[in-house]
Specification:
Elements: E1 10-14, E2 19-23, E3 26-31, E4 35-39, E5 45-47, E6 58-67, E7 71-80, E8 83-91, E9 106-108, E10 114-117, H1 130-133
Antiparallel strand pairs: 1-4, 2-3, 2-10, 4-5, 6-7, 7-8, 8-9
């Protein structure tokens, strides 16, 4: 086991936004509890809690790799819509102390999935009343269905501008 230092730094920070993982356009993970591991000069890797991953589409494989800083990684294959991607996801189930923040979480190889950062789930979006948002200007009768707004700018001569005349 090696300990991270200034020559091989490892940091683990919580992502500020919700992150979704899509495989072939299908959501395979969605979480507001994602951590990003930054290690030396490598690109950051996002780790998701298993409870936020659709594990029904994943099967553990026999592949295991070893990192002297993080420990042993177990791998998973994605099975979805007749597509099989071997060893597309991994997990450090019992990492070394320096990487304990990723223990039991899973990460995906970015060449096999798409990440969406900052997306809201359906339950987090607010439903709007369309009639409150959309200002209908004409019902077909030639008259406005809504009151006119007060002008927000002055005319070039400094006088308040007048709303355009109503169509009659």
């Amino acid at each position: 086991m090696k300990t991270p230092d200034e020559t091989h730094p490892i940091t683990i920070e919580r992502e500020r936004s919700r992150v979704r993982v899509l495989f072939q356009g299908h959501e395979i993970a969605d979480s507001g509890d994602v951590v990003a591991l930054r290690e030396a000069g490598y690109p950051p890797v996002r780790y998701f809690p298993r409870d936020d991953v659709r594990m029904m589409f994943l099967r553990r494989t026999d592949q295991v790799t070893h990192c002297p800083y993080k420990g042993d990684a177990a791998y998973f294959t994605i099975y979805r819509d007749g597509k099989v991607i071997d060893n597309a996801m991994w997990s450090y189930e019992d990492p070394y102390p320096a990487a304990s923040g990723i223990g039991g979480r899973v990460a995906f190889y970015p060449q096999h999935v798409e990440f969406e950062v900052g997306a809201l789930t359906a339950s987090e979006t607010e439903a709007f009343d369309v009639d409150e948002v959309v200002r209908h200007t004409d019902s077909g009768s030639g008259t406005s269905q809504a009151e006119r707004w007060e002008p927000t700018v002055d005319a070039p001569d400094g006088e308040p501008s007048n709303p355009s005349p109503q169509l009659g």
